[in-house]
């Protein structure tokens, strides 16, 4: 068990065997002490509490904000397989990961500037020469400029003629699908198979041609997001969602799902067994049948802090089994926090030291842009103990209130036992025992040691109360609390 109570001098104990994440789904009294009712800027890898890792500001710079980040993977004809593509100031740029500067991509014929910097994108291939290898391409589309194609072999850009200008695109069943059309919000359009440049219908052999599908909802809603999900295409409106099955027009089956849609397209991200998206109430998940709240009560106090007037710019991504969702909180007009949900362990954490506007996940790294450093690119990092670089922002961890399941008992003279390790330089932890009467704080400075390693530390707190909680805070430095901690208090029953 994580905690237990017995009575007598120095025998009321609260054991915290490990640290997990946020848990705000109760009344904050006698909750699981492994979880925090408040926290910020920490990691709990393997149950160890430590500050979040510092992110890296990369060298390349553009003069205006980067509003789209995309990835082109080139399988053929080059050793430099991966290419980053950015949209900024009405232009497209490219760079190899680790590069020092962006290179502008030439405009297609007849274009002098793009009207929008917010693009939807997918990777695909074309076969201009049947006797040669295919050419990997990046397709980008928005509702103002239409679709363009970036060739991976020579990094040239061409316009793709489409029936409509698509705000969102996706690849499904070897066709490119488009939606979010300004003048036709209920329409979905699909290309011919295996050819993203062919948008013509084939009346003789319909399965070899392109086509159009209408799914009206008669309420002014429009398609906002398209995501391939296993052997199906999921088409989201703000308040509804459709599942598309089949690989050819004669086989397509549209079925409306339950539970609502996806109001914020940039937050829709596909995990292995579900699609996660942000709503005004928190994160929701589509599991192949319906959209339902996804552990929203775990962060219920956090969701109340979201600024719904600025949430249209929220952004999210799935990377290595975690859902990273950048949101504006506490009245901010930009994304000033990132919520991290580990879909494997079920833990939730909050970082308030990062401002992220757009994410891009690659096999090796997670990149993001930020309004606080417009035109620059950041790389996300995790595990500050391994990287040796921790956030410089303040960290905070607050346990639930505990009355040891005995409201008639006064607790006092608290002893906290813990093991803290540091790297290279001393750090100071601020530990506080808070009761309903007052807060007692001790400053514990941890020095680097060699040889036999670190020892358990006992820290004494005075004060009494019928309930208490522990607060752990720090500013700067690399440290970690290993093996949880133990709180022992004297008790005096009425």
Number of helices: 2
Structural class: mainly beta
Helix content: under 10%
Instruction: Give the averaged pLDDT, no decimals.
Output: 94
**Tally of strands:** 39
Give the termini distance in whole angstroms: 27 Å
What proportion of the residues form beta strands (DSSP E)? 35-45%
Oligomer: single chain
Shape: elongated
CATH classification, class level of the largest domain: Mainly Beta
In the CATH hierarchy, the architecture of the largest domain is 7 Propeller
- Give Rg in angstroms: 27 Å
The CATH topology of the largest domain corresponds to Methylamine Dehydrogenase, Chain H
Instruction: Sketch the major β-sheet.
Output: 5 strands, antiparallel
- Would you identify the regions where 5 or more consecutive residues have pLDDT less than 50? 1-10
Quickly count the domains: 2
Main sheet strand line-up: 2-33-38-35-36
Task: Give a written overview of the molecule.
The chain is mostly beta strands. The chain folds into 2 domains: 12-53 and 395-493, Jelly Rolls, CATH 2.60.120; 56-291 and 368-377, Methylamine Dehydrogenase, Chain H (7 Propeller), CATH 2.130.10. The protein is 2% helix and 44% strand. The chain has 2 helices and 39 strands. The strands form 10 sheets. It has a 5-stranded antiparallel sheet with strand order 2-33-38-35-36, with no helix packed on it. The radius of gyration is 27 Å and the shape is elongated. The model is unreliable at 1-10 (pLDDT under 50).
